[in-house]
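User: Fold this one for me? It's NUDIX hydrolase.
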Amino acid sequence: MSHKKFEETTIETKPIYQGKIISLQVDTVRLPNGNTSTREIVKHPGAVAVLALVDGKMLVVEQFRKALEKSQVEIPAGKLDPGEDPLDAARRELEEETGYRAGSIRLLHSFYTSPGFADEIVHLYLAEDLTVGEVNPDEDEFLEIEAITLEQAQQYMKEWRISDAKTITAVYAWQVYQLTGRI
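Assistant: Here's what I get for NUDIX hydrolase.
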């Protein structure tokens, strides 16, 4: 199947908002049938997330998420700085949020979070052979670190304490890893 038959050509881009992390634009596009439409698009620099395993448990952080108006339990994660290599960012975020350094770290997969309206891509890494360092969260980051079992992670998912895509993906990848020894 050719992706070209679905392609939309941008006629005009109208910037709406430019923030510290995201920007919002409205694009006027020509549809494959010749008609025009608009697309509201959130631009994001990309992010990393880390499935960090230590002593058979997964490291998570709990923090308040204003967009949801509640605390969430998530794997360590953060946005990419301009021009930053995702692997370097994964190492940085793991250490900043948990204090751990990875002896072994590798990319599991990269995925788009909401392709219907945003270009954010998340690079998910597996970190193992961890050694304890020093926690150094961003100045506006208040979080609590926990090491949880797979059963606890599954329970947190049932309770909606874990409900974000990157952490749910990591839990399922970890489950496959435990069952097969491979991801």
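One thing worth pointing out: Strands lie at 9-18, 23-30, 36-43, 47-54, 57-65, 70-74, 77-79, 100-112, 121-132, 143-148.
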